[in-house]
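#structure-requests
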Amino acid sequence: MGTVPAALFDRAGIAGVTVFLPSCAALQTGLILGQGYLHAALTILAATRVLASLSRTINAPATADVARGEPAASARRTRDRRTCDDRAVTGAARHHPELSQTQPVRDMQ
């Protein structure tokens, strides 16, 4: 099975927007009711088209991590960096006790 052309994803997104905007306009003008099946069907149709368009550029491995409740790789890197910084601060405080004590701020007059 070959790859799906990028133009197909773009057309899906355009189709979603062309369904979604008139649907919202019809809802605002009172042509369709917000509690009706038509509004729900149009919104689902438009959302699936836009989602299909976005799926071309989505980062699937990161999405799978988040779905499993794990932080994404960028969050893991940030957490690891923060842990490393915390270790550096506690190490510095161990060798320089004056760093671990809070000093009152003096007014500069």
